Amino acid sequence: MLRVLMFLVPLALSVYAFIDCISTKDDDIRHMPKPLWAILVLLFPLVGSISWLIAGKKRHPAGAGGSVGSAWSRGGGRQQWVAPDDNPEFLKSLDEDKPGKDRDEDPKGD
Fold it and tell me: How many C-beta atoms lie closer than 10 Å to residue 10's C-beta?
């Protein structure tokens, strides 16, 4: 079993790194052109994959990009879902949708 893992883990890592490399926009790649990174990952699977993951791609914070009101935010070239309870615009719309509720009214009923 250990022999199989010693083969499959580097293979999976190199496949992931290669797909990530070719699907990354040219603007987000650092240090070398995209074709050189792809060749490096293919020729040296373990070293090339690890170097791609560490140094090859610009990493963006998860919340970077996107507008406050949108349910999807873009971070690092990928879209990430923003939960409704984290979306201020959605929370404001809940107050607007309440029927028969006057906003000037005291919530305690005093």
Answer: 14
Closest CA to 52 of 67, 64, 36, 63: 36
Query: 53-79 pLDDT, tens per residue?
Result: 998 888 766 555 544 444 555 555 556
Number of H helices and E strands in the chain, helices first, is 4, 2
Which two tokens mark 100?
Answer: 């028969």
- The widest CA-to-CA distance across the chain, in whole angstroms, is 75
Q: Is 28 exposed, middle or buried (0-12, 13-18, 19+ CB in 10 A)?
A: middle
Q: What is the mean pLDDT of the chain?
A: 77
CA dihedral angle for residue 90, residue 84, residue 71, residue 25, rounded to 10 degrees = 150
Q: Which of 54, 69, 58 lies closest to 29 in space, CA to CA?
A: 58
pLDDT in tens, 25-48: 988 888 899 999 999 999 999 999
Predicted TM-score (pTM) of this structure: 0.54
